[in-house]
Amino acid sequence: MRLTLLGTGCPVVSLDRYGPATLVRTDRAAVLVDCGSGVTQRLVAAGCPGRDLDAVLLTHLHSDHLVDLYQLIVSSWHQGRDRPQRVFGPPGTRAYVTGLMDLWAAERAQRIAHEARPSTRGLEVEVTEIADGWTLDLDGLEIAGFAVDHRPVRHAFGFSFAHGGKRLVVSGDTRPCPALEAAAQGADLLVNEVFIHREMPVVPGVRSAETVANVGAYHTASTEVGKLAERAGVRLLALTHFVPPDCDGQALLAEVAADFRGPVVVGEDLMTFDLAGGTLSYGRAVLSLPGT
Prior knowledge:
alpha/beta, 7-stranded mixed sheet, globular, AtsA-like_MBL-fold, Metallo-B-lactamas, 3'-tRNA processing endoribonuclease activity, MBL fold metallo-hydrolase
């Protein structure tokens, strides 16, 4: 089982960190978690175009996690996809997808008529709305969804994946909560979002003290993520969804490592964790992963 960080950013635009998106693969299945800005480019760069996805999981319905869903659908069709895109998400996902497809219906009809491609099946979307405890088995890749605490967002989920005796957990957007800690117990890899308070000062005209407090309150602070991973006894912690995206990685690593005794990775776009092989790949670099 392999996990690739496709996008490690947030709503703040970054040239280095694209919108939130994570790819989980086995030899028989490919699953995309979230569909942030630039995801179609990152999928191609990771060697898994949207054509090849078996499922798209949405953690919640914030714009930065689903803004490129329509681009994914159309680009997958252009890549030769001949089956519907399967989308699993919280309550409200069906209405969102219906509205999205209706918005682009005229443009899509024109493309279909003019481009004369062999099939339109790849432009279809099958939506399943999920609840706490939802599960799915994709050719031996066992997936489970669990509710997390991203209030005032009413429905938000994290996901766990198990295959070949290994298990990884993707937190989704959440403040520290018992459900995430329980799901992560003993996991080989926890991929967790992080909010760095010290790098989010008040900026007149951009964000107020209330902005910083409110946004920080429904994310996992850099002062808390290591403690959560330590309590859960995870073997490896990888950080993603950086707020802000241009944070000081060295300072962040030192802060989190002070609370967590295992290895900590400050994630980057297109970084891949191979749990079966026990390696981390980034560009041409390949490192062994202790404890996996």
